[in-house]
């Protein structure tokens, strides 16, 4: 029997989850809207808001899961990678909670957890599988051999896929985070209306900086001729941007699947909430005979449910850390 309380505070979402014998029974996510005023996450503000949110989020998670503090057997927390000030809040809270209740601490790598979110609900992938992890900070193709035996076989050399969405959204004067808004507008637009530069990277790595510059120059050129270009073509621009990013991601995923002879394919991270990517992946799966795994929306973007399920796997192995553990902004994979 195990009840694990999990804390996620790596960026701008304060999240607390409970895993009861391998089942997620609470997943509270307190979003921080304050960053919308600045067009991106302000680290100093994020850590302050985590401080305000964390105790109410823990209380709500206990209520939702119908357990008390005394029922908790271990505390799992995100050690990294992430914003140091944000991580510090979660790590410090987890340590205090574990010390007060005299229970073990479990440290979780945020990027492992995005992938292990696939073990929350059925159907669960079989090992080995390939996972495309696409978030605001990372773009990785990972060969997953076991729960904690993973190898990065491709990654971005510059911007992450989420950044490509968010930065192009900023060019279009859409508020932060722009990814979900591009997705929304794209649903009413023509994905073939405009074409942007495609990165030419030979291996399984990605590059999005040239793509972003190509969108910037395209918009500037068009606005010279028609100052209302963005307003008049927003849906088509969003659909075309989204289509290009999705094609870049899917092409590399196809290459990885072929190279490794694997047809169990998963996606994870905030950008896996994107409808174009979800549909494109399903279509590719139908064409190539892949079995695909797409997480439920609440487990795509940052959430403590994924930390709780990773923590559960570590709890089964009694893989604990001591009170001297510190957060790591750049944590090894
Ligand atoms: O995994 P996540 O919540 O945080 C990080 O660890 O970075 O990912 C956040 C990223 C943001 O860049 C956001 O714009 C993007 O995921 N995102 C989306 C969608 N939902 C979230 N991008 C495109 N379409 C979406 N529907
Ligand atoms: Zn994340």
Structure report:
This protein is of the alpha/beta class and 333 residues long. 43% of the residues lie in helices and 19% in strands. It has 9 helices and 10 strands. The protein has helices spanning 43-65, 84-101, 110-116, 161-171, 179-186, 209-225, 229-260, 275-288, 304-316; strands at residues 3-8, 13-20, 23-31, 74-80, 105-109, 129-134, 139-146, 149-155, 264-268, 291-293. Strands 3-2-1-4-5 form a 5-stranded mixed β-sheet, sandwiched between helices. Helix 1 (43-65) packs parallel to helix 2 (84-101), helix 4 (161-171) packs antiparallel against helix 7 (229-260) and helix 5 (179-186) crosses helix 7. The model has no long low-confidence stretch (mean pLDDT 96). 5'-O-[(R)-(carboxyoxy)(hydroxy)phosphoryl]adenosine binds at residues 11, 135-137, 162, 165-166, 177-180, 183, 269-271, 273-274, 301-302. 5'-O-[(R)-(carboxyoxy)(hydroxy)phosphoryl]adenosine is lined by residues 11, 135-137, 162, 165-166, 177-180, 183, 269-271, 273-274, 301-302.
Q: Assign the CATH class of the largest domain.
A: Alpha Beta
Structure annotation, total helices: 9
Strand-pairing-aware structural class: alpha/beta
The strands making up the biggest β-sheet line up spatially as 3-2-1-4-5
CATH topology of the largest domain: Nucleotidyltransferase, domain 5
- Give the H and E element order: EEEHEHEHEEEHHHHEHEH
Low-confidence stretches: none
Q: Give the ligands present.
A: 5'-O-[(R)-(carboxyoxy)(hydroxy)phosphoryl]adenosine, zinc ion
Q: Sum up the overall morphology in one term.
A: globular
**Could you tell me the number of beta strands?**
10
**N- and C-termini, Cα separation:** 29 Å
């Amino acid at each position: 029997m195990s009840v694990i309380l999990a804390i996620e505070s790596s960026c701008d979402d304060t999240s607390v989850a409970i895993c009861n014998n391998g089942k997620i029974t609470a997943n509270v996510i307190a979003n921080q809207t304050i960053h919308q005023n600045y067009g991106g996450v302000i680290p100093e503000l994020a850590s302050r808001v985590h401080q305000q949110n964390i105790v109410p989020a823990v209380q709500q998670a206990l209520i939702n899961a119908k357990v008390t503090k005394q029922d908790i057997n271990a505390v799992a927390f995100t050690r990294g990678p992430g914003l140091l000030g944000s991580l510090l809040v979660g790590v410090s809270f987890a340590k205090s909670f574990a010390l007060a209740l005299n229970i073990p601490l479990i440290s979780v790598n945020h990027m492992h957890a995005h992938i292990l979110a696939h073990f929350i609900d059925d159907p669960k992938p079989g090992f080995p599988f390939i996972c495309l992890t696409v978030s605001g900070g990372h773009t990785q193709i990972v060969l997953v051999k076991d729960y904690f035996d993973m190898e990065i076989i491709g990654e971005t050399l510059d911007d992450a896929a989420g950044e490509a969405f968010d930065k192009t959204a900023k060019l279009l004067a859409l508020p932060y985070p722009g990814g979900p808004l591009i997705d929304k507008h794209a649903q009413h637009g023509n994905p073939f209306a405009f074409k942007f530069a495609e990165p030419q990277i030979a291996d399984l790595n990605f590059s999005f900086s040239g793509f972003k510059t190509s969108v910037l120059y395209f918009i500037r050129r068009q606005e010279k001729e028609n100052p209302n270009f963005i307003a008049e073509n927003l849906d088509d621009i969003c659909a075309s941007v989204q289509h290009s990013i999705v094609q870049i991601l899917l092409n590399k995923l196809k290459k990885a699947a072929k190279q490794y002879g694997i047809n169990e394919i998963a996606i994870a991270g905030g950008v896996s909430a994107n409808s174009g990517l979800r549909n494109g992946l399903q279509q590719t799966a139908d064409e190539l005979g892949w079995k695909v795994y797409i997480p439920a929306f609440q487990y795509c973007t940052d959430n403590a449910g994924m930390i709780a399920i990773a923590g559960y796997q570590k709890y089964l192995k009694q893989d604990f850390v001591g009170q001297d553990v510190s957060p790591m902004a750049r944590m090894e994979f």
